Amino acid sequence: MNRTGHHDNEARLDRFLADVQARAVRMAALALDDREAALDAVQDAMEKLIARYADRPDEEWRPLFWRILQNRIMDAHRRRSVRNRVVSLFGFGGGHDPDGHGPEPEDWVDTRTPEPDRALNDARFGAALEAALAALPLRQQQAFLLRVWEGLDTAETARALGISEGSVKTHVHRAVAALRKRLEAYA
């Protein structure tokens, strides 16, 4: 590839990563319940995409990136599981939230809405949605986020999660049903 082509590819990859970064952090934070671990997982996924797949066609980056991120999330869950077993073996207690608090309330406030009642309702719905998503089993959560929030099709989601397309459909269906039930007060 010539020098200009290399820079064009690099610029496209930079734009792609900038576009998915916030959603990827949000998705990983939901799955890991730890913003720092989520940031690490996203950074690792981005670095791997750059190192191994930058020369691939642009249309391959999205499913590759989400697959890499899903692997990082599963790795973090495995490490946490081992750590928790070791900690419990020695009788040490403590919750799973190392800094002692969840998302900050200001993360949910709709600052663009001038009406206080609507802003409060939006914030409550946002908090309820976040809690409902966090309560889903991991596969359902990730399938739902990739299909609905990220907009991947069933085949791309299946590749990203390393499962069959039928499993994706089942997980998304179950996630939607669970979310509807938990959020019915907002309907």
TrEMBL record:
Pfam families: Sigma70_r4_2 (PF08281). Keywords: Sigma factor, Transcription, Transcription regulation. Residues 128-179 form the RNA polymerase sigma factor 70 region 4 type domain. The keyword Transcription regulation applies. GO terms for molecular function: DNA binding; sigma factor activity. PANTHER family: ECF SIGMA FACTOR, RNA POLYMERASE ECF-TYPE SIGMA FACTO. Belongs to the sigma-70 factor family. ECF subfamily. This is RNA polymerase sigma factor. It comes from Thioalkalivibrio denitrificans.
